[in-house]
Amino acid sequence: MTTRAALDYRTAGVDIDAGAEAVRRIRSLARGTFTPGVLSEIGSFGGLFRPDLTGLADPVLVSSADGVGTKLKVAFLAGRHDTVGRDLVNHCVNDILVQGARPLFFLDYLATGRLAPDVAEAVVRGIAAACTENGCALLGGETAEMPGFYADGEYDLAGFIVGIADRARLIDGRGVRPGDELIGLPSNGLHTNGYSLARRIVFDTLDLDVDSVPEGLDGPVGDVLLRTHRSYLPLVSPLLAEAGGIVKAMAHVTGGGLTDNLPRVLPPGAAVDIERGAWSPPPVFAFLQRHGGLGDAEAFRTFNMGIGFVVVCAPGERDGLLAWFRRRGEPGAVVIGRVTAGDGAVRYP
Amino acid sequence: MTTRAALDYRTAGVDIDAGAEAVRRIRSLARGTFTPGVLSEIGSFGGLFRPDLTGLADPVLVSSADGVGTKLKVAFLAGRHDTVGRDLVNHCVNDILVQGARPLFFLDYLATGRLAPDVAEAVVRGIAAACTENGCALLGGETAEMPGFYADGEYDLAGFIVGIADRARLIDGRGVRPGDELIGLPSNGLHTNGYSLARRIVFDTLDLDVDSVPEGLDGPVGDVLLRTHRSYLPLVSPLLAEAGGIVKAMAHVTGGGLTDNLPRVLPPGAAVDIERGAWSPPPVFAFLQRHGGLGDAEAFRTFNMGIGFVVVCAPGERDGLLAWFRRRGEPGAVVIGRVTAGDGAVRYP
């Protein structure tokens, strides 16, 4: 791992041996993700990546930064640190997939009060596994020990991704028209959004434990809340390669839910009507709505409500796309609504 | 700012109006940094950047992630939030400059417990100003509100940079030989490293205030400790353009000081002898050594000790390079030591 040599600090509350041990393990995990584009030796100041520009007439880099948010608190409660790294990478991968980009490399920022090598290793193991699954090199990162910033055993985690796309094949929603159809791809849970509210309901209002299996939930609280944010790359990337022109727009359903994320890819003069009954969300959403006393408006603006990714196409392409998703093993792909004329709002009539 | 629309969350301890206001201000600051390469509309999922590949036979992306560390605590004490963003950007710029890269774009991660729009704006104002100074677009970022993670009024900050270089002109230290000379470029203070120790000495041992002006320090404690991490890009980039072949290796003196950073660019079989008397460090270093009872070994492995960046060249190029730096207004550039045969150690004979 490239910039890991900059582990702060040698003094004042920092355990040098623990830091060195964590760096050693992390470097080894990172090395396992290296794709042919990686040029840098471990320990150099910046990570070097030589993009394969073959077939790209006008290469455009697509980049995004993200965190895991307070889903981390659930990981702390459960003492499980190997899932949040996957959440982070998959979130970033989806964010650039929306514009048609394939990932090239990823870097992480892991900040703690006092470094626990086992925890750091578990976090980076999750990151490295997801990088490998997405064909993305873990090119570098920073592990910062910041005494007085984080509670014992806690940490924050951020990620940065860089991908590439040909300019002519960027997907920007420009061609979206009233009448176009929205195909939703299922989420497996909250992914990485809405955890401040979910935690308040589950751990404060209901006073549950991570091991509780309450009625209405399909597993122990900790397992359900830690389910990994899905990467839609393995499903959507072949679609873009085979039938990219059919996809008019895509949206990643993150903070703000369908309500706030769909307008980000609508052209002026367009709005969306969602058919609420078109899909069956995982039980966690009804559980949270019931016990949190959440109305639909708030729920659809806080949680993904069972739809993690949306593909927009012309009406005539709908059935072909649905069949394509079914052939690729995604029977949960369904029409969740359509584009209408309007002022950018998402309605749930 | 692209991914700012993902401001977490709408509920549970998050002030929606404050968040929206911060995002509005931040987007405007980011837009001001946009260079011709930026393609993305504000609000898209990923930031789009079209690199200018003219004249690059074999383009290589160079990337790095960094934080500001506990220098942030000094900013909190002083209530000054417009300098740490500069520290972050300049640190990242220097990290990729070491390999001969010029910056293309930057993304930040700003995490708080509860967002204060004025503070967030000040932080991003510093980031944006430094991006502009370094010709680097602030392409995106994430502002995360994470209740329960950070103390009131506190935040963490991480940055991520992507630059580009032609593969044939990458600087990797491969040609470094015993006898080569090290030219040091002055720092103006601690830059972003050693703050956990410095804070302990200044605020705990000496019980000083940010406004104190103790004997032996060239200004109030807060001002001295918050001096901005220098960017060496304006100085070194023209050198690489005019005489790149002369530079055999470079090092950015960050966490670990000269002791740990110089070995990162030495080939096997090389070591370094430093001439301690060759330069006059800013007074803060002697102040910290004296009041912290720090030996030289510890000081040179914790602080930059007045040298922020190092350029390695053949003996015959030394005088020409020194003259070049003086002509460019950097009289503080001095020979600080030379490469010897050895096992990678940095010695202070």
Give keywords.
homodimer, 349 residues, alpha+beta, 60s Ribosomal Protein L30, Chain: A, Phosphoribosyl-aminoimidazole Synthetase, Chain A, domain 2, 6-stranded mixed beta sheet, 4-stranded mixed beta sheet, 11 helices, 11 strands, 33% helix, globular, disordered N terminus
Question: How would you describe the overall organization of this protein?
Answer:
Two copies of one chain form a homodimer. The first copy, chain A, is α+β, with helices and mostly antiparallel strands. Chain A contains eleven helices and eleven strands. The first copy, chain A, has two domains: 152 residues, 60s Ribosomal Protein L30, Chain: A (2-Layer Sandwich); 167 residues, Alpha-Beta Complex (Phosphoribosyl-aminoimidazole Synthetase, Chain A, domain 2), CATH 3.90.650.10. In chain A, the strands form two sheets. The first copy, chain A, has a six-stranded mixed β-sheet. Chain A has a four-stranded mixed β-sheet with strand order 2-5-3-4. In chain A, helix 4 links the parallel strand 3 and strand 4. In chain A, helix 1 runs parallel beside helix 4 and helix 3 runs parallel beside helix 4. Chain A is globular, with a radius of gyration of 21 Å. Chains A and B meet through strand 1, strand 2, strand 3, strand 4 and strand 5 of A and strand 1, strand 2, strand 3, strand 4 and strand 5 of B. Strand 1 of chain A pairs antiparallel with strand 2 of chain B.
Helix/strand order of chain A: HEEHHEHEEEHHHEHEHHEHEE
> Which stretches of chain A are low in confidence, meaning pLDDT under 50 for 5 or more residues running?
1-14
**Structure classification of chain A:** alpha+beta
User: Strand percentage of chain A, roughly?
Assistant: 15-25%
Number of separate strands of chain A: 11
| Cα-atom radius of gyration of chain A | 21 Å
CATH architecture of the largest domain in chain A: Alpha-Beta Complex
Largest interface: A-B, 88 and 87 residues
Largest sheet of chain A: 6 strands, mixed
